[in-house]
Amino acid sequence: MKIKDILRNDFIVSGDIETDISGIKYDSRKVIHGDMFVAIRGENFDGHDFIEDAIKKGAIVIVYENNSLLITHYSLLEKYPDIIWIAVNDSRDAIAFLASKFYGNPSEKMTVIGITGTNGKTTTSYLIKSVLEHYGRSVGLIGTIKYMIKNKIYNAPHTTPEAPDFQSLLKAMANSGCDFVVSEVSSHALSQKRVDCTAFKAVVFTNLTRDHLDFHHTMEDYYLAKKRLFTDLFREGSTAHVNIDDSYGESLAVTLKNQNKKVFTYGIKNQSADISAVDIKTTFKGTTFKVRIMRDFQVEDSEFEISSPLIGDANVYNILSTVCVLLSLNIPINIIKEGIAMTELVKGRFEKVDLGQDFLAVVDYAHTEDALERLLMAARQLLEAYRFTKKTEAMINVKKQCFSFGKSPTCGKIITVFGCGGDRDRGKRSKMGEIAANLSDFVIITSDNPRSEPPRSIIRDIEKGIKVDNYIVIADRDVAISMAVELASSGDIVLVAGKGHEEYQEINGKRYNFSDRAALENAIKRTISRPSFRGGTTGKGAEMVRC
């Protein structure tokens, strides 16, 4: 493609704009001959420092920020007179525009749905994808766990990739015949303009709770980054779908309505929501509830029942957002109901590990205080269902034994294994410790992805928030998971939180193979043939009792 075909009026060009380029790169190490290299500023490095490296690799066009080149860099312009130099005001804004143009504005050829929020993005994306595919549509997916072009799966190094990679994926999806694209949109991506110049048809706000403050610094900045999807990137004819049980969502909905934008709201608690959930019932097998429609979606039924294998109120919100989006896209109710019922459990999101053991074992990605609280509340709901509504013969006759861990000796305990990531927001660590200890019967604090921090230092930060005596520390994550399984009795719930779908543990800059699910499976296999009553020392504050 010729340079002149992707330029914007505010770009200042020095060189032949009739020149063809082969690609757009932002990483000098990946440049090949004929590429355009865009120097962008990252969290740790400034692309302007690698301009000469890119030229030596074969870049024939350099895009740089007017105010970013130091005096010493200007010698490059003289040193490489054959290079085409393009000065821009904002490299990230420029690369988003250039990438969209270079790949032929692919988002305009499909219906693109963007989902942002602290929690629920991944599950919501899978729910929407499931329903659309059940409706006979071809769907592409961009998200935390993986990228998918129809049934082809690709690794996902980032929840939302950099602009050239994002637009390249959209182009591949359009070329493959995708009708829809469902994309998670992270706050980092919005802050760094990675999805600018994308034509989103529908956008979703799930919630906003503390996370990524190592990057955004304040909750207000975090919110403003998310808000861009509904303001700066919102196009005429688009629709917004907002959870108004969330205080930030409620404020966002008011702002958008005042701007005369088309907004659909959903919630469980807020009675003014366009779509709400009532009669929610959660069991070990899944969740059922009634969807109540308070707005004219031009549907026959203003109330209908949803059944899903997903568990807990957090997933009720995810399902409501899905219903909200799909109704606005005129997908029939029966298709929505069937597609949601068919959605498989999402990897690392309340993912049950069942090898025939007599307790529930769950892997979950919860790595924020809100997500951890939601996870534990869902587990509490399950225990209530187990204690008071499950009246099978097996439950009546089984000889139950459990650990009290310093609390009243009731059957069915929550044993939680979790840690916190290193080099990230330290302020949430003590809060997560407090939540885990208060809502669990027993907690094993362990290592997550310590990165460059000493695991023990992270664990000490977690301990600062714990005011009760119901936990132990086992820094080795594999050993911690094994201990949780050893402690579990019939009717208990073992929660392994924090890493979810991840297949690695990052320590001192290296990634080592590690899977919470695999570790949990191995631990269960080792103990599954043993008697349900397991002896041993449970640690701090623990006492063994019979029920």
Report on the biggest sheet: 11 strands, mixed
- Indicate the proportion of strand residues: 15-25%
List how many beta strands DSSP finds. 26
Average the pLDDT over all residues and give the rounded result: 89
With helices defined by DSSP (H or I, 4 residues minimum), what is the helix count? 17
Distance between the termini: 74 Å
In spatial order, strands of the major sheet run 9-8-7-10-6-11-12-13-14-15-16
CATH superfamily of the largest domain: Mur-like, catalytic domain
The second-level CATH architecture of the largest domain is 3-Layer(aba) Sandwich
Spatial shape: globular
CATH class of the largest domain: Alpha Beta
- Fill in the CATH topology of the largest domain: UDP-N-acetylmuramoyl-L-alanine:D-glutamate ligase
Low-confidence stretches: 389-410, 532-547
How much helicity do the residues have? 25-40%
How much is the radius of gyration in Å?
A: 26 Å
* Integer tally of domains: 3
Quaternary class: single chain
Give the helix/strand class: alpha/beta
